[in-house]
TrEMBL record:
Domain Type II restriction endonuclease EcoO109IR intervals: 51-230
Lineage, broadest ranks: Bacteria, Bacillati, Actinomycetota, Coriobacteriia, Eggerthellales
Protein name: Type II restriction endonuclease EcoO109IR domain-containing protein
Organism name: Adlercreutzia equolifaciens subsp. celatus
Any Pfam family: RE_EcoO109I
InterPro entries linked to this entry: RE_EcoO109IR, Restrct_endonuc-II-like
Record-linked SUPFAM superfamilies: Restriction endonuclease-like
């Protein structure tokens, strides 16, 4: 069989894991038939520790009545849920809870990935903006979790902000004459893309003429992860989700849903309402 050395795309040819010719260095160990360096183990330890902290923060979020409560749920589009087939107040609580939870997690998880990548990547800093030195050049990175987190309307503004950040860094680096380059990075993508792109707005798009001709490096999926971390994906880094120490986040989440259901029942009763979606709509009009 062959033993792959992670992140280096090299292999040791051998017949069995116990082959007598195998000699590991002090920086290597075998795990499930794969030879890892201690650097990989260190990076993974950082990743699992940060995910443990994420779970603890989510548990705190679920228990904070100021962060998620009935009014937050009623702030969602009740009509949209009704049109989707949600029929009762209890169903609405579950669906609106998931919507609130998801929107909250997108921001938190995006910040976590950026901090994690900076922590395990050499010559990379997370100062609110992620910057990394590669081949002597300073790259200012705009980081997105996936392609659909940006759209045709918001994309030009994101490029404009990236261009401005690069110009700011060029002023700082003027004395050293270090090259400052922009990179637009997407963590999750089914294609590995690494290319230089040039933004050219439509001739009728006068609002974005100021960034016409702006060039930036576009990296997605495996190409991005290899560029910064040496892993081919987030799954390559987090290779065993059962290792994530979730603490009591599962219990906190269930307790939160139970609390919200009680808040809904109490509010409906206090307002002499039933449990249909029409009643939820009336409750929203009275409380929000």
């Amino acid at each position: 069989m062959a033993f792959a050395i992670k992140r280096q795309e090299r292999q040791f040819a051998m017949d069995t894991p116990s082959h007598p010719s195998i000699t590991l260095s002090a920086e290597q160990h075998i795990e499930n038939g794969v030879v890892y360096t201690d650097d990989v183990a260190r990076q993974r330890a950082i990743a699992y520790d940060m995910l443990r902290e994420f779970s603890a923060k989510r548990a705190a979020y679920y228990r904070d009545g100021s962060k998620i409560n009935l009014k937050k749920l009623l702030g969602k589009d009740v009509i949209m849920f009704a049109a989707r087939g949600v029929a009762t107040a209890e169903e609405f609580v579950l669906e609106a809870f998931r919507a609130c939870e998801s929107s909250s997690e997108e921001t938190v998880m995006g910040n976590l990935w950026q901090a994690l990548i900076a922590a395990i990547s050499s010559d990379t800093l997370d100062t609110g903006d992620m910057m990394t030195v590669r081949d002597g050049a300073l790259y200012v990175c705009e980081l997105k979790s996936q392609v659909n987190t940006t759209n045709s309307a918001s994309f030009p503004q994101e490029l404009r902000e990236l261009k401005d950040k690069c110009e700011t860094q060029r002023r700082f680096k003027r004395a050293s004459n270090q090259q400052v380059l922009p990179a637009f990075c997407v963590l999750r993508h089914n294609k590995a893309i690494d290319e230089i792109r040039t933004y050219q707005p439509d001739e009728r798009d006068q609002a974005n003429r100021d960034i016409a001709g702006f060039q930036y490096r576009y990296l997605t999926g495996a190409a991005f992860w290899q560029w910064l971390t040496g892993f081919d994906s987030v799954e390559g880094l987090i290779d065993d989700v059962s290792r994530i120490e979730i603490g009591d986040v599962r219990q906190a989440r269930q307790e939160c849903i139970g609390r919200l259901q009680k808040e809904m029942r109490r509010a409906l009763e206090e307002n002499s309402l039933g449990d249909t979606m029409n009643d939820v709509q009336l409750l929203k009009q009275r409380l929000c």
